[in-house]
Amino acid sequence: MSNFLSLQYFLPELCLLVFTLLIIIFELIPSLKKHTFNLSVIGLIITSILLLQTHGQNSALFLGMITIDPFSHFFKYIFLLSTLLVIVVSRYTKELESIYFSEYLALLYILLFGLFLMSSSINLLMIILSIETVSIASYILAGILKYDNKSNESSLKYVIFGAFSTGIMLYGMSWLYGFSGSLNFYQINISLQNLEDPFIVYMAVVMILAGIGYKIAMAPFHYWSPDVYEGAPTTMTAYFSVAPKAAGFALMARFFYVTFTDYSGSAPVGVSNVDWMTIVAILSAATMTIGNILALRQTNVKRMLAYSSIAHAGYMLMALSVATDSALISVMFYLFTYMFMNLGAFFVLIYANNVSNVETIKDFNGFGAKSPFLAGCMVLFLLSLTGLPPTSGFIAKFYLFAAMIEAEKFYWLAIIAVLNTVISLFYYFSIAKSMYLDKITNDVGIEENKVFTFVVLVCAIPTAFLIINWSSLYDYIASSILFGLGL
Hints:
Layout: H1 3-6, H2 11-28, H3 36-53, E1 59-61, E2 66-68, H4 70-90, H5 101-120, H6 124-142, H7 149-180, H8 185-193, H9 199-215, H10 224-231, H11 234-240, H12 243-259, E3 261-262, E4 269-270, H13 276-295, H14 301-320, H15 325-356, H16 367-370, H17 372-386, H18 392-407, H19 411-436, H20 450-465, H21 470-478
Antiparallel strand pairs: 1-2, 3-4
């Protein structure tokens, strides 16, 4: 589709850019500065409405640079909802009182724009542009507490690891372009079908995994995650653990399922006999194991949840490694439920830090008596993160395992995942133990903030009650994965 005709389907992204400029303009006008928060919320609502207007479309835009399809729409809804929740919480967190809030909102909008492009990219050049848009905004947001040494350190580490991984990925993409002469995923796939020497594809797969693996905190490209998550503002830690991770999985699924997979036989296989699925399966086992084992040693809750997010990336990689339609559905289902349970856990931590300076597990002592509602919600989120019934996390993890069994491969990986789930129970419930069983150092009750209570409740309801009718969500996701693969 030509550039001019593509604009009618690109309105949600254009809306984000317009509101980014409006937020900056409002900041410069003293009488309007106080309205930037309301403006940012209105911008997300209008973007959501515009996104609904293009629902069901399936077209390549801007001469094949990006695509608009139900698959990308699903992820854009995740980005919008997680951004909205984080913006609302950010206004009421003490940690951000010293920053220029309008700049913070503008950077979040820029980051969100990049996430939209990541989920829609079908061109190697657009992958780089979208990832760099997300990364540059993320680097600044991680270090936005400029007088905090940990925040500065996290930003610097984020930049160094990000630049290194992007450079490796660029080199891998150059191999693909050099062989195929095209930047388009589908054209590259056609060129790779008859390749006699698979060495080129293996090298490209490994190097591209370095770039995408960095975004989703996949081992061995996870080292940045704990330090960045600990030093960044907790609101951004929550956001980094959900939205960019979801975008990374959207990009990885589309890229690997389209470019490196052959669907001509009875079961999907790698092009030119390149078994990228086994590589991903091995990395999945390493990711979930490293994440869970290192989380056991943590006393800082933010670092613990950082290693937890690494482990959850491993669970989702487990399903992606079989490259079937049910596997992709299960990953998307998992990401949707993970958004609520992970953001909810971070929001409770943010509120506890606001009122009691909670940072470590011991700081949660007696929190169950001080704030019964939020403590109860925290236990619910921990149950769901572990994958125990009757939470949505149990249903999501069940679908991951079901996809593995249906594909009849990598049974060893499913066994490793079960063992890791057991390990995760120990460190998640160390927080619950501290809240309810450890000695209360201060029995003064906490006055609950209505905004935090509402936002946590928004996360808790789908976490607790999705089990009542999860099939509707599953069916919707199943209808969203058709992006030209015949799935």
